Amino acid sequence: FHVDKKDVLVEENHSGSVSLPSLMTPSSAACMSLSMEMPRKRKGSLDNQDTKSSSIPDADMEDDQNREPHSQIEKRRRDKMNNLIDELSAMIPTCNPMSRKLDKLTVLRMAVQHLKSLKGSASSFSEANYKPSFLPNEELKHLVLKAADGFLFVVGCDRGKIVFVSESITKILNYSRAELIGQSLFDYIHPKDMGKVKEQLSASELYPRERLIDAKTGLQVQADLPVGAERLCSGARRSFFCRMKYNKISIKVEEKEFQASTSKKKESQRYCTVHCTGYMRSWPTSHLEVDGDGEPDKQDSSYYSCLVAVGRIHSHSTPQVNGEVRVKPIEFITRFAMDGKFTFVDQRATTILGYLPQELLGTSCYEYFHQDDLPHLADRHRKVLRSKDKIETDCYKFRTKFGSFVTLQSQWFSFVNPWTKEVEYIVSTNTVISQTSRSEVKSELSSNSKTSEDDCNKSLQVILGISTTPGAMIYAGSIGTQIANELLDFNRMNSSSSSGSISPFSLPQDKCPQTHNQISNNVPNGGATDMEIPGKSSSEDEPQGAAFSGGESLMVENSQLDLDSVVGPGLSSLSNDEAAMAVIMSLLETDTNLGEAVDFEEMHWSS
Amino acid sequence: MTANKEKRRVISRDAARRRRQVESEVFVDLSRLLPFQQSVQDHLDKPSVIRLTLSYIRMHTLLKGKTGIKVEASHAVKCGQVMESGQEWRGCDRGRDDEEKKTDNVEASEETNMFLRILEGFLMVLSTEGDMIYLSDNVSKYMGLTQTELMGHNIFEYTHPCDHEEIRNNLRLTAEEVWCGAKRDFIMRIKGALTHRGRSSNLKSATWKVLHCQGRAKVCVAPSSVSCLLLTCQPLPLSHTLLSTHTFTSQHSMDMRFTYCDQRMTLLLGYSTEELLGRSIYDLCHILDTNCLTKNHLNLCFKSQSVSGQYRMLVRGGGYVWVESHSAVIPSVRPSKSRPGAHQPLCILCVTYVLSGVEEPSLQLSLDQAVHRYLR
């Protein structure tokens, strides 16, 4: 049990506080005897250290401290104090107009005066009965609710009656407290979420065991909670999302935030997603004023159980640092596997290309490209697999379902798995440049048919850089496969470069891989046998260097996701192996909050 | 001659002593004015007194200073100028006597305490330079260090160096962002001096604690322009979440390929466990959400915990659902099924909440929905 020592102190001072002895274990009783509120006068603490180092302090640092001459420590202490005094004088209005720098004592005296003047205006600030809080309680409350964008609410478990809701709900859902108190919560929940909310509110008789996660193993466990009619899993935690109605006459700004969760259908009611977290609580009905309609059936049970929870609007649908992919109306997005086969097609494609997504899925994009565009698109395909930049294609023609062509221009980038650094797929943002008219189509089609098979084959051969026996058909789709295989072979041969050595077969990015291609076709395992990679079958153990030659750093500044801005520049200078170790070490050092005990303290509620 | 020197020395020593005494007295005066219990005041060292005084003045400026028009308007609404039938806004001090004020005070305090306790987090007010101007007093529960020890210090002294860049980015506020109360949502690692059983230890044995910080910008204009971030900071517990029918758990290798998922996944999304093993989560999601997933993955790789935003998971057979995942990196329990023989020390545990019903059920967007198994 973790007893919150702070609360123990506070609640003892409150009038009408709850008795806590029942929760106290012998160890916490011992804690009680110490005065816990005091900050320890920190020896070797940060006030006395000048260091801005934020690595975990360890014994070594202290040893260094002691070896320093005392005068150095003193000087640092003085400097720190002088800085503080300077900051203080900047904050005090009476100090500011002074042209010359004031001495320490004067600044301090003026600070005393200033504080006295500030405190004079605050009325109920320094009540003797209460533990003084740093901020006036009202102010703190507003700050908390503003920061959290949330509201407190208490609903009865049986019917979902809203017993209490904080005023902040007006700013969030745009309903007044009066409108809500006494109403049923279910009137404000999206119809499809009612079942979910009912389940969350329900007593444990229907769900005799709770599904929890065991922090150590990550597996689900059944927790046996004492099921008694009175207690009703008091203290059990609830966490769920549900869609709540909000009053339509809301500020325009907020509508943008609800974008992700608004129903696509044109409903008269608008909903926003609220994350509710809280605890089940039961109180003897004698303690509560259950206001509103007297419920005759309620009087039988001696306990009234409620959910006491906080609701927060969830409006983060885009990460802070990188904006969402901006999509304009004449754009659609597709996803290819490395070999150019469609694996995802945005529904907008249908109006532009005529195909339903499922008609395209699994087929190679090369089957739709106009023949004249194949060379440059193949070239871009190769480029994008080897680069972290966004690659622009030229305008090209894409065959629609009706046989006509649309002119598109696309931006491709290869999406790389952050852990393995391998390419997962290629994302293509496609913009329509123009739609070819029907009349042009006919001449196109006839000109296409004139091209002989041989010509077609020849141009494809040039693209692929291979020579095949004459007469063998090469399908457009095989272009993509071939390009993908090039990369896989390239990677396989170069994976040893993760330790820094450069493979004799590694090529600079933009060089035409035709010669390389021949090698890879003739010798399946890629080049000389001494390039055999020992035991590196799994890419999970550590992030591998992808298609880059050994000298390049692990994290190249890339346009699709600016890693430096997200996670800091720390790892750029490390080699792959070092980076992997650094990540694993840092993860093992972190306390992932999984071992925290649940706080089952009773909460006092005064209605 | 030496006698004179001696005398002068004694005089100067006494003078110095007197100066120090006077200074100490002023420090005591100052500490008495700080809103803490006397026992706390007595034990503050001199730099702490100044640090806390600075915090007090800065918070006062922030809260009482003249604010902008938008904020004033809402403040007017708050102060009961727009009265709702029968409900008075309790925040307004006008025309209330001391007793009422006291009750309001207590109620406000209780409400805040309850709010923070349920939220399982603490409040942090950060200046644009990263000074932790204010921390709610329950910070000791999460960091093991008390409010008085921490307030006024700079956040960069307490957070992981690799997270500094991200924190700096979040502290940067444009004028527009400030006026609109721009939102912030990020994850950072902070020093936690708590033992496993929740007792305070000291900084020397501190570990990194992962905090999810959410909040918005706040500004006040006069007397001097002060803008800051109001943040609630929460650790991200996974251990005691009650799972409902609309959540499922899954485990992944570090590259986000599935190594396990529970049966609810099948009920909610239609994929069987076997189908998913070895499959990357990136294949399963809507393409527009790639950024969201990547950010989540990176947070996991570097900070070990993450809360994704809302993203879309494709449902087998067509359509998608909006979901949100809370994930953490944990020591691996089971060997990776997708790559037998390769055992890694870590894996990712995700708790995913399904937020919506199936949208556009007839729409097949991805190959995975159409084909039984997509073989790479």
From TrEMBL, chain A:
Q: Name one GO molecular function term.
A: protein dimerization activity
Which keywords does UniProt give here? DNA-binding, Nucleus, Repeat, Transcription, Transcription regulation
> Which segments show compositional bias classed as Basic and acidic residues?
64-76
Give me the ranges of the annotated region Disordered.
38-79, 520-549
Chief subcellular location equals nucleus
Provide the PAS domain boundaries.
137-201, 339-388
List, for all copies, the residue spans of the domain called BHLH.
65-118
What are the TM regions of this chain, as residue ranges?
none
Q: Name one GO cellular component term.
A: cytoplasm
Q: Which Gene3D superfamilies match?
A: Helix-loop-helix DNA-binding domain, PAS domain
Q: Where is the composition biased (Polar residues)?
A: 46-56
Domain of life here?
Eukaryota
Record's subcellular location: Nucleus
**InterPro entries recorded for this chain?**
bHLH_dom, Circadian_TF, HLH_DNA-bd_sf, Nuc_translocat, PAC, PAS, PAS-like_dom_sf, PAS_fold
Which SUPFAM superfamilies does this entry report, sorted A to Z? HLH, helix-loop-helix DNA-binding domain, PYP-like sensor domain (PAS domain)
Record's PANTHER family? CIRCADIAN PROTEIN CLOCK/ARNT/BMAL/PAS
Listed name of the protein? Basic helix-loop-helix ARNT like 2
Give the gene name: bmal2
